[in-house]
Amino acid sequence: MRTTLNISMPPSLKEKVNNLIKNNDYASVSELFRDAIRALEDQKLVEDIIESERDFTIGRFKRLRSLKDLM
Asked: What count of other Cβ atoms lies within 10 Å of the Cβ of residue 55?
């Protein structure tokens, strides 16, 4: 199911949106925004993984021996 979302933006930003659609073969503004949101989510996931790797490297982790250790 889809939901409609109305947003307002200055003309200069709308022009950038139109250029992104034209130059990146997006079919619509909606497709551009869905892709942008997915990219932001992916970026956050990568940042979380990097942070977890740093924590592991400096020894900030807990070794789990069973599911009870998660509690």
From this structure: 11
The structure tokens listed for 37 are 């949101």
> How many beta carbons lie within 10 A of that of residue 56, not counting itself?
10
**pLDDT tens, residue by residue, 28-66:** 999 999 999 999 999 999 999 999 999 999 999 888 999
Whole-prediction pTM:
0.75
Close Cβ partners of 21 (under 8 Å, ≥ 6 residues apart):
28, 29, 31, 32
pLDDT at residue 25, as a whole number:
92
Output the DSSP codes for 46-60.
HHHHHHHHHHHHTT-
What are the residues whose beta carbons fall under 8 Å from the beta carbon of 19, sequence distance 6 or more? none
Please say whether the beta carbons of 64 and 70 come within 8 A.
Answer: yes
